[in-house]
Amino acid sequence: SVLQAYYNQINGVYETDFPDYPPFQYNYTGVNPVDKFSVIGTKVEVLPFNTTVQIVFQDTATLFFESHPMHLHGQSFYVVGSGFGNFDSNTDTANFNLVNPPARNTFGVPSAGWVAVRFRATNPGVWFL
User: Are 17 and 43 in contact (CB under 8 A)?
Assistant: First the structure.
């Protein structure tokens, strides 16, 4: 398992180069994008305890638009924002609800849209997303 590999320092089970941003940016909600890119592998982000984490989930038109449910195991989170089109960190974050965001453990990424969540990494272990 990933947790055993972490504690026993076993190489080759996972990689710790999980990207902070998409490695190839394109018009995610554009019609039939040319840059259909995916990577096969087990990528891990090791988070220090009590770190505040923000993740933006972006729907894409890579195959087809789909409202996709997401669930974070072992952790609840706050949905701080959502919208349609491509997420823009320069403008969309100004509309985040940081006062009383809804707490969830599952949400749906809207078709051709995005959802931003935040949580504190307070539950040690390997949690799949």
Answer: yes
